[in-house]
Amino acid sequence: MQAFIINQGVPWQSYVLKAQGGKKKLPHQQVGKLIVATGDAELPILEELYERAMANRVPGVELISSKRVQELEPNVWALQALHSPHTGITDYATVGWSFAEDFLSTGRGQIHTSFKVVGIDMDEVKGVTLESQSGDIVKAKWLITCAGLHADYVARMAGGAKRPVFLPFHSNYKELKPEYCNIITQHLPYS
Ligand SMILES: Cc1cc2nc3c(=O)[nH]c(=O)nc-3n(C[C@H](O)[C@H](O)[C@H](O)COP(=O)(O)OP(=O)(O)OC[C@H]3O[C@@H](n4cnc5c(N)ncnc54)[C@H](O)[C@@H]3O)c2cc1C
């Protein structure tokens, strides 16, 4: 399974797999997540994440002791941790294709991939005209743009305001050497 973490509102808002997964049996495993604090300075951050999880009504989230962390994951040490037992992993490509199939099965639209939008013309009478980098044209009555980190740029193409702008930040994913792959029993550890 290609792991995409179902974050369930600890850092962000809740995620929709439950609604889809209930009916469609999309692949997922509830492995749980541990967000660990390894120094005193990190304890208030953990507390804030806990408050956020409570505000988002994330089920089952607890602040747990160092001893409990070791019971759950013998090779993880922490002063304290946030345990989210219902956090899981899924194969997001499968989830994405499932959304696409649902949409196409309504017969109410098309999906164009590899269609980099380079021009957007908004006309009150003629509607919206989108132009791709390769010169293809798509016309529509309405336009909703969801361009991720390019959302500000694409929104401006459609006549949107200059602000807000996105400020990207860098983060790292580390891959364990094969010989260390079994040191974590089950959970997704975060520090
Ligand atoms: C390495 C990494 C790992 C992550 N892991 C997780 C995780 O495990 N769990 C989790 O919950 N979140 C994870 N996230 C965060 C998650 O991916 C984002 O929050 C989510 O994808 C945002 O969705 P979005 O639809 O707003 O933007 P995106 O998923 O970025 O989609 C925007 C789309 O717009 C397209 N686009 C942009 N400009 C144009 C244009 N001019 N014309 C046409 N198309 C355009 C892009 O190609 C892209 O397909 C991860 C992010 C990264 C970078």
TrEMBL record:
What cofactors does this protein use? Answer: FAD
InterPro entries registered for this protein in UniProt: FAD-dep_OxRdtase (IPR006076), FAD/NAD-bd_sf (IPR036188)
- Name all FAD dependent oxidoreductase domain ranges: 25-179
Q: Which domain of life is it from?
A: Eukaryota
Q: Which Pfam families match?
A: DAO
EC annotation? 1.1.99.2
Q: Which reaction does it catalyse?
A: (S)-2-hydroxyglutarate + A = 2-oxoglutarate + AH2
Keywords of this protein's UniProt record, alphabetized?
FAD, Flavoprotein, Oxidoreductase
Class of this enzyme = oxidoreductase
The record's similarity note reads: Belongs to the L2HGDH family.
The name this protein goes by in its record: L-2-hydroxyglutarate dehydrogenase, mitochondrial
Q: State the organism named in the record.
A: Sphagnum jensenii
Lineage, top ranks? Eukaryota, Viridiplantae, Streptophyta, Embryophyta, Bryophyta
